[in-house]
Amino acid sequence: MSFHAPLVIDIAGTHLTAQDRKRLRHPLVGGLILFGRNWESRAQLTALCKSIKRVRPDLLICVDHEGGRVQRFKTDGFTHLPPMRALGEMWLEAPRSGRKAGPLDAARAASACGYVLGAELRACGVDFSFTPVLDLDHGGSGVIGDRAFARDPRVVSLLAQSLVHGMLQSGMGSCGKHFPGHGFVKADSHLAVPVDQRGLKTILADDAAPYRWLGATLQSVMPAHVIYPKVDRRPAGFSSVWLQDILRGRLGFEGVVFSDDLSMVGARTLEGRALSYTEAALAALTAGCDMVLLCNQSLPQADGSQPIDELIAGLTQAHLQAAWRMNERSEERRLELLPCFASPDWDSLMVSPAYMQALDWLP
Questions:
Q1: Less CB within 10 Å around the terminal CB: N or C of the chain?
Q2: How far is CA 5 from CA 45, 79, 115, 116, 311, in A?
Q3: Does residue 178 have an active-site annotation?
Q4: What's residue 1's pLDDT?
Q5: Which one of 146, 232, 260, 261 is the catalytic residue?
Q6: Could you state, in order of their start, the residue ranges of all structural domains in the chain?
Q7: Is the distance from CB of 227 to CB of 187 less than 8 angstroms?
Q8: What is the rounded CA–CA span in Å between residue 100 and residue 97?
Q9: Is 188 a catalytic residue?
Q10: Model pLDDT, residue 266
């Protein structure tokens, strides 16, 4: 049986320290997520990614790079991508001469966004972006807002499919988030535990519909730290009902399931009880997640704690005590997210016809 490496962790700076290398060599660590603090320039980012791959070639280098206000790298040549709402607005705009508008133009623009997004990241050595947002724009969620394509799940699904197509052309997989939908609740799960009082039938017909239509298109899914009490009293990311019965069973999804960040407030309690990071990781893995993220915990903690090391040690102990069983299929899924063909370097990308054409189609 292959070793299951479910942890995605972060680093504090713009280069690897000896402590970072030690953590990344641990067999339970399967990926690294980058943030704006890890960026200085394209040359520095490329060197950082190369140094990560020298530690372990199988590590999945990830980033939240959606466009709009969620884009980690915006300077030194990186294209500032539009928020996804711009594509939804293009879809609804009446076509007229000399202006890109209407559903077909919007779909092509979405493919262009996906290609530019993926190609620029891959040219610097980044493997994967947690994109696209499939949440519906119900109008009340500040944390989602213009990150959503539209209110209509059909428009969201078709634009997301085009975006994913562009990402795949660049060699990058996709992650639909936040299952089964974060757009209806106003609370931000970074800061609170949102509760959505709607029933399963309503959610499946509306917010979760893109996951049914895109089940064979998405390479991964990230569940929301939202409680849907009429379905289960646990947040979706800790719920076997949502992840195994509904996402895997009813909707037939076969790709990777990532937890959202376990340091978010929405992941720090379960059924009224405070969770340690190890307990949160075990709850997510037991519920059906293949991979779990712990973000922004490589930074020095005020109390002197080392959350990443504590999680690695806790998960190791849980395995030794048979409190958690490694999942061979989860490891296979993780490895399938790694790019399957080489990417051109930045200078070659800048003069490639496909890239230049894609830039012309951005909103």
A1: N
A2: 24, 33, 29, 30, 13
A3: no
A4: 43
A5: 260
A6: 7-360
A7: no
A8: 8
A9: no
A10: 75
